[in-house]
Structures are given as C-alpha cells and as structure tokens.
Amino acid sequence: MSIKLFITGTDTHIGKTYTSVGLLRLFNNHGYSTLGIKPVATGIMNNSNRFNEDVIALHKNSSVKLDYHLINAFTFQTPIAPHLAAQQEKINLSTATIIDKISVALNHPAQIKIIEGVGGWHVPLNETEMMEELVRILALDVILVVGVRLGCLNHTLLSAQAMQTSGVKLVGWVANCIDPSMTFQQENIDTLKKRLTAPCLGIIPYCEEPEHYLTIEKLQL
C-alpha cells in the first residue's frame, strides 16, 4: 500500500505544515511508514544551505529519512508566490521540472506520503501552470486545511469548488483554529460540515498538538 495525500490550504500561513506534521505523527503512531514531501518552498532559514523550515519539519517527522533535496525540488529565498520567486532567481519552475526532481521520493515504497503544497489551491507556478496541475498530473488525493477565521467560509467553499472543477478528489478537511478571538467559531465549522461533502478529519484548537485532534479513519480513500 502506498497512499499519497496532498495538503493544501485556504490561504498561506494557514497551518499546512502544522497539519502535515500532525498527520505524519498520527500515521507514525499507527505503525505506517511515512514520508513528507514539499515540492516547492519559499523562504530560507539561512543563505549557507538554502534550507526551508517547513521542509525541515516534514523531514524531522517522517519515519523514512531521505536527503533534503529528494523531498524538496525547489527552495526559493524570498517568501513570495513561487512563480515570482522563480522569476526573481531566473529558475525554470514547471510541473515537469518539479516531478523530475522529486521522482525518487514519489516512487519510494513508504506507505504514506504527505505532500505539502505552497500557498493556496490556485497559486501559480509559472505563466501557464498552477499547483493544481501538479496534483492532477500525479493523481493525488487532497486534504484541505481550513484556517478558521473571519472569511473562512468563502475561502473554503471556493477552494472546494475549484478542486471539483479540476477533477481531483477532496478526501477530507481539517479545521485549524488560528484565531483564538474569533466569534461564532463553532458555528462556522458547523456550516462547513453541512456544506462540504468530504468529512472533517479534525478540529485543531489554537496552538495545540495537531495529532491529538486528527483522525484518519474518516479518510475517503
């Protein structure tokens, strides 16, 4: 068995890595071999090694340890949209180049592969391609991380609609409560439960360990 799950979000800084790490730990605790992959990352920890903290977190929490550059095709220095970062560094960023660089990781016999996106669902990779093309080409199932804050209903429903149009399968979503002062938080989550056909895999309270609130039994695989 080898399951590949693509983790996207309703926006950037919404908790994709936070949730991806929680899923890796949860699958590890259930005895599965796991491998975290982040094909594209923007923003580096320091100039000497060009490492990204999100990629490091995925690597640290994977039971299978591959070289950094096998789980990350591109790390750009500036934390901006990937197509702009690639233009700035004069690098050819495309679905073809990404797939080529992470092919070893994609084909590794780890049972669970958690593949984290960058930005939201419709983030551009170049002038003609978006991240959704990569997901469609690789036939990945999708988990949507919802940043529960004002505006999340619109962002979530539009993202789910875009996935449906793309022909990919949304197998579940996670409510990540990033705004502790949000009013009617539970009511917003309940609204999404009623309107989304995919199951809610967990509700993560603000700054709690995500794996304690996630479930994998509801995954529609």
Strand and helix layout:
Layout: E1 3-9, H1 16-29, E2 34-37, E3 40-42, H2 53-61, H3 68-71, E4 74-76, H4 82-89, H5 95-101, H6 103-106, E5 112-120, H7 131-137, E6 141-147, H8 152-166, E7 170-176, H9 185-195, E8 200-204
Folded structure, characterized:
With 221 residues, the chain is of the alpha/beta class. It has one domain: P-loop containing nucleotide triphosphate hydrolases (Rossmann fold, 3-Layer(aba) Sandwich). It is built from nine helices and eight strands. A six-stranded parallel beta sheet has the order 2-5-1-6-7-8, sandwiched between helices. A two-stranded parallel sheet has the order 3-4. Strand 6, helix 8 and strand 7 form a beta-alpha-beta unit. The longest helix has 15 residues.
CATH homology superfamily name: P-loop containing nucleotide triphosphate hydrolases
What amount of the residues lies in strands? Answer: 15-25%
As laid out across the biggest beta sheet, the strand order is 2-5-1-6-7-8
- Structural class category: alpha/beta
SSE order, as H and E? EHEEHHEHHHEHEHEHE
The rounded distance between the terminal residues' Cα atoms is: 12 Å
What oligomeric assembly is this protein in? single chain
Q: How many distinct folded domains?
A: 1
Percent range of helical residues: 25-40%
- CATH topological fold name: Rossmann fold
CATH architecture: 3-Layer(aba) Sandwich
Most strands sheet: 6 strands, parallel
Low-confidence runs of at least 5 consecutive residues:
none
